[in-house]
Amino acid sequence: MLHWRSAVYSVRYFHVVVMVLMVARLAASLKCHQGRVVASTKGEVEGNFCLYYEVYPSLKCETFNQLYGFATLNTTMLNRKCGGFWEGSNVIAACFCNFDYCNHIDQVKQFIDNSVNEPSIITDVLTWKVIKDSKTQRSLVECLRDNMKSITRTEDLSDAHAVAIVIVYITVASLACICIVAVYRSPDRHAREVRATHCQFLEVILFQNK
């Protein structure tokens, strides 16, 4: 009987341990933005750092790709820091952080100035070889910051354009509804025909803006 109870307690203890580990793993899961900035996705990742970075063909900081990513790094010293690296013949300017969705441009902008004022990454990261010259580091991080500002301006213009389209659509739809009601309420046949023509014109505009 004692052996049976001991076995039951062991099984229960094992289940509790497994559940605790699963909860701890879920709690520790990091969420990052991923992929190209212009068409990114977001969600949980198998890593402990989120990244925002740009890839250049040279130190001139031209013709760049803007990317979100993640990595598993054996350090906590890179949190909220940015720096410049070599990857073969390419140059990378990257920012690192370790909390959920911290690699979005709006979040990175909150801490990138610290690395501009005081470059502090002095070790290699993954396969990236750190650029040891502090002036070059500062120049690359400044370039990264300036490029983020241009993306933000583009997103703001896109949002304003989308809002304008919605306003126009709602306005035309409202006028079309008013026009239809006026047609049915008009006692004069000629007036109904004129208003119906106006309504058809509004309907054409409405469907073209869908």
From TrEMBL:
Transmembrane regions: 12-30, 162-184
* Name of the protein in question: Protein sleepless
Q: Any idea which UniProt keywords this protein has? A: Membrane, Transmembrane, Transmembrane helix
